[in-house]
Amino acid sequence: MADLQLETVVDNFLKQMNSNSSIDHAFAGFMSFTEEEETSKANREQEAIAQLFSKFSEANVAAACKLFAEHIYREENSLKAQSLLNYLEHLVTSNKISSKPLCEALLNSPNLNYSNRDTWCSVFQLVRRIVGGVDYKGCRDIFRAILYKCRTIPCQDSLTPQILSIIEVFNYILNRNACLLPSYFAINEIIKLPQHEDKQTLHWAFGKILAEFTQSFRPTVQIVTIPSLPQLRPVIGHSNINAYAWRLDLRNLRYPNNAPLPFDRDKSSTKLVRHIFTHAYSVDFMTGILIYNRKSQEDTKSRYSELEDQLCEHVIHLTQSQSKLASCSAVMPNIRWHNITSHIIFFVLWNMVHLPHMLMQLFKKLDSQTVPSGCSRDHLIWMILQCLFGVAKPVDAYSYITFIRIYDQLYPETTPLPVPDFSSAHSVISCAVTCMWAHLQKKTVQLAENKAKIRPMPSILRSQLTFLNGALLQYTQGQKTPGPVICDFQLATLCNAFSSNEKAMPALLNYLTDSMMNVNMQTKLPHGVACYLNTEPMSVEMLDCLSVHTKMLLIKQLFGKMEAQVQKQSQVALSPALIETFSRALVYTEIEQTFGIKTFVSNILPSIVSSKCLPVIHTLLEVAIYRLIHMQPHYRMKILSCLLDELVNFNHNHMYIRYENAAMCLLLSLGNLEVQQQVFRSIGEKKFSIVSQDSEELNKILVLTLARAVNTVCDSGQTGTWCVSLLRKVFEHTPHSWSPHTLQTFPPLIQEFYLQNHVPGEDKQQLTRNVDAEFKRWKSMTDVDSAVAHFSRSSERPLFLCVMWRCVMTHTPIKHTAYKVLEAIGPKALGLHLRKFCDYLASQLESCQTKQPFLQCTDSLKAMIWDYHIFTLDRFILCLSLRTFDAKDCQVCLFTIIKLLIDNNFLDRVKEFTSTAPAQYWKSSGYFESHVSYHTKYPEYIFYEGILQANNMSAVSASPQYLPTYFDNICLRMIPVIDVVIHRLIESLKLGQNSEKSLDTILKELSVLYKYHDKPVTYLYNTLHYYYKTLQDRKAVKKKLVLGILGHCEKLPIDLVISGEFKSHVPSEEEWTPPANYYFQRVKCLVDVMTDVEVEKLLGVDWRFTEFTSAPAHVLYSTCAEFLALPIAGEKVAAGLIDIIFSWRHHIPAASLAMWMNAIALIITALPEPYWKMVFQLIVKELQESDFLTIPHAADVNPFDALAFTKSSLSQREYRCSYVLALAHIVCHHFNIGQLSTIPKFIKEQVKPVVETERQFLFVCHLIGPFLQRFQQERSYCCVELTIELYEILEKVDKAGAELKYMDSICDFFYHIKYKFVGDEPKLEVEKVIKNLRTSLQVRLRFIAHHTTIEGTPVAPTPTN
């Protein structure tokens, strides 16, 4: 029926019903009717309405109800309005129409007026009587409509009948026994009320009932939150860190709570944000935890005031901390100023912070604080200088005025500032305000055009500016002769002051670059490669004193020198000082997004590679591998992809060695959680690849890295498609196999792949026959061209290295033809020959029955490496260590490797290098001299020169083209190879004692090289973690590994590397069981560095050039490595750590207890599975043995109060279960997703069998609740599994027959799970459980399980007011 037609029918009906006869109308005031007549009339009218509605379709019933409602509200006679309401109610009670359309029609009408008391009360009384027949979603809509109507009631009114009528409806709808709707729906509507700020607030009379109902959800809030979360802190730089666990809402910097629950609004995470600000290289993590969509925030007006506020608070905190230090040149505060500057610049560039507004906020905060002075004031102005002129955005009038106000605030004195003594670095910082004014003077013209008021130069700055202008003339007029600028702080100040001066700055930059590279003078690099002078780079201390703008211009200038080198194809290499300075400048995070490492990786390196200028490419790869320690993983993989795509085609001996070594280092540098991210990227992006097309060794290194990552993150059963896809891609390019003892250490998924894709091994007898035939052919061939053509065909029989070895073994002279053959083969194809040679060598070594033949074999190898220079030591050992051998061949080959490594040819080089080259290169200006001295004494030949020398041929048609080498040598290239060899030796420990002796030998002779290792602690940690089962009973091996790898660490205080107790234990042969105090002290060390208690020990540490980016990361990794090396089982170590909370709690301040738990959790989650599984055992033990949990009436205490850690820890009556729960929460919060994914299995197999009481079940709900959000985001199927397990545990508790006192909170939690996480996915399993529960639970959960047996409206008592 059309709307207009329907409206006509209803209007006509109502008019007819209201019409009276003429007599009745004339004598209306004098006539009365009997009760029978009134009843008869009412029945007729009621029947007429029923007949009318029977003609309507279901769709028209709602419209008809609206029309009747509008008529009722227009009716001035309240009795008639009441009669119509009664008629409509009868239609509902007689099932002629449903309750929902009538209630919605009455409540949603704008004509329902609070001032019409009788009609208002009648309507809400009717709603109260019929709302029980509405379905739960309709009941939610009705409740929402009532809440909106409540906003129309004047707040100043007293308790009127209208308000009482609504309260009566509220009491009924919100009655949990009535179960008209899920209480979760009702709380959702209540929570949403404050979001509508334009509406009037609710009347005070509704506050009690709504507040009580809201408070009834506080237990649910407790179940789904971690009470100590605001006190928890991550360790920046820890590879196990997961940004999902720390996500924040950028608008308010709070943990996102999107659920309709009454969460605490005072739990801000601003301390977490401030904690991140203090760390270098934390910008990526910061952006990872901030929920932010850049595409929708391109407008600069879209700023976030809370983030700006915290940046300002942190700056003020730094000024206060700086003022407490006696020295102005302390390293730690200077680094922290760099860190906060980096964050501000990043946020400004990404439009997350509006710099002028932030400066104004800083001004306001400074106005209420003690105005900083001295060093703190200088650093504050220095930071503002960096930020204002370090971003590619113009300084507007607002910024200018804001700075003027800050200046007036900080510099109230009238005495001129003195010209500082430029012999110290702080002199540059003290001139920051003058540099700022010098920049602003360049902006005055533009600002004047915009009618901004320009202030002249303050008088207190004129003496400094006059001095700087005078000093500038020496450079602009060419009066200054370029020379080394290691620490010229006056020059740094000039650059900072005039970096925006188009006339002065080019002269200063030219002076800087000319000082680094004198094109009129040359010196020699290794191999006699000519390069320009100078050799002394700019010091890190001076680079620290350059502003962000100056650093960008300097890097741009240095890159211009490289481009000129490429264009000219100059035979003279760039100066060592320029390259070292360039590499040092790239470490600054404040320029990363503008012209720093991002530009280096994205623009500079690809541009140089495309030009195919090998000298510069080789140089840049050296910089990337040996100098850029803290490159982000995506930058490293971008370089690797560039190597695999482009450089693999450069068939140049020197370049290929650098390519292979660089690719291996980049792969080995991947963190455990970073591997999956980069694999996903390689699978999703066609132009991005981390798989080599031809190098089996590189692909095996990739597989080893993958195995280590999967094993360490405990995700071997969940890697699934991405892992297999990568393995297939590797196998497609380079089919290979692994030795059985190596394969056994792989995670199950990778083991299964290689068992299904087996590659048959080499036929030793056939290989021997082929080599014999080729050797005879070599001796018989006299024609050079024929020999070159035959033996250079690598795809057919790559056996030329086998032939060379036979020549050496049989003392057959190696003809000069071999040189031409090797040149024709090229370094790329030589890998095929090398693999065949390793297989052949293993078969020959196996046949050596005595010592003499074996020594002859190794002597022949030494001759090939050191005398004939056929291949390099690092390439041969890497290839041999990665070949597939059986147990016997493996032992022989590893023993051969050891013989080569401890040979004097290599050991002498190691001793020379380690005695002359500084490990802390960034503090040295003479690294180049030691580098050239080493290469002069021990030159490296890679173009087969030894063959020419053996044939007395010193000149060839084309001289070898060695590339410029600034850092590289065989000792440094061998470090990652030795890493691989040590792992192979550990894997072969089960094959015999020789492997342990070999490992002992290599650690004794070569461990000194680990002071040059870029990540020694990480390598030790990964080794002990990955081979935990292999080394579990080999206490001596673990001690030697720790002593060998960490014993030569020079970059950090030794107390932060190895504890005193462990150092005293290492040399001892006696059994040692750590005392309880040992664990306490190790955890205390981590807590101290995370809270800056140990800051004095770290004032001299520059984290930009050390292995880790912060002290907490270093202490965490070294502590974990130490615990892994302890001579006791992992379970005992974990028990000792856990016992700190229960036995040593009285030594810890109550306010710091959560921080200690945080430190323990960080350590335990970074250790192998047996360690953190002890937390699971602790949970099960508590469930079984806790009287409070197992005995229903053990204590007359609300279990929610007892399980609340913050309440329990501060109360006089503590409950152990709250501490267990708090520790479990913190441990699970620090879990990576692989570890977290073990919880469903733990709940099913260990927890479910022991849970029998309601309190035990509530404990389990508290345990699982806070992590459902992470499961839903990262492993949704785990969320479903946990939901099913919770229902089955509830069924078990229900069948135990005990009273369920907290049934409503339990049901609220289940509704929260359904509507926020799982939906109807586990519907079938859940319905099977719910139908077996007691009736009261079925009624409450009936909206989750729609069974016909409980589908109807429950019979519930009528609530009273």
Structure overview:
By secondary structure, the protein is mainly alpha-helical. α34 (696-712) runs antiparallel to α35 (720-733) and α43 runs parallel beside α48. The longest helix has 30 residues, at 817-846. Mean pLDDT is 87; it is low at 294-301 and 1348-1361.
Task: Supply database-style keywords.
two-stranded antiparallel ribbon; two-stranded parallel ribbon; 62% helix; 70 helices; mainly alpha; 1361 residues
Strand adjacency order, main sheet:
1-2
- Give the total of beta strands: 4
Quick one: biggest sheet? Answer: 2 strands, parallel
Unreliable stretches, pLDDT < 50, 5 or more residues? 294-301, 1348-1361
Report the radius of gyration as a whole number of Å.
39 Å
Task: Find the structural class using helix and strand composition.
Answer: mainly alpha
Query: What percent of residues adopt helix (DSSP H or I)?
Result: 55-70%
Distance between the termini: 43 Å
Total DSSP helices: 70
Estimate the strand proportion: under 5%
The shape, in one word, is: globular
| Overall pLDDT | 87
Short précis:
The protein is mainly alpha-helical. The chain contains 70 helices and four strands.
Please render the helix and strand layout as text:
Elements: H1 3-18, H2 22-26, H3 35-54, H4 58-74, H5 78-93, H6 99-107, H7 117-130, H8 136-150, H9 161-173, H10 183-191, H11 207-215, H12 218-223, E1 248-249, H13 270-277, H14 283-289, E2 290-291, H15 305-323, H16 331-349, H17 355-367, H18 374-389, H19 397-410, H20 426-430, H21 432-449, H22 462-476, H23 489-497, H24 504-516, E3 518-524, E4 530-533, H25 540-544, H26 548-568, H27 576-585, H28 592-595, H29 597-611, H30 614-626, H31 633-645, H32 653-668, H33 674-684, H34 696-712, H35 720-733, H36 740-743, H37 748-756, H38 764-780, H39 784-791, H40 800-809, H41 817-846, H42 851-867, H43 873-881, H44 887-901, H45 904-916, H46 927-937, H47 945-950, H48 970-987, H49 993-1006, H50 1016-1026, H51 1028-1031, H52 1035-1046, H53 1060-1065, H54 1076-1090, H55 1111-1124, H56 1130-1143, H57 1153-1165, H58 1169-1185, H59 1187-1190, H60 1199-1203, H61 1205-1210, H62 1216-1230, H63 1233-1236, H64 1239-1247, H65 1254-1264, H66 1268-1274, H67 1276-1295, H68 1303-1318, H69 1323-1330, H70 1335-1340
Parallel strand pairs: 1-2
Antiparallel strand pairs: 3-4
Helix pairs in contact: 1-4, 3-5, 4-5, 4-6, 5-7, 6-7, 6-8, 7-9, 8-9, 8-10, 13-15, 15-16, 15-17, 15-18, 16-18, 17-19, 18-21, 21-23, 22-23, 24-26, 29-31, 30-32, 31-32, 32-34, 33-35, 34-35, 38-40, 39-41, 40-41, 40-42, 41-44, 43-44, 43-48, 44-49, 49-52, 50-52, 50-55, 54-55, 54-56, 54-57, ...
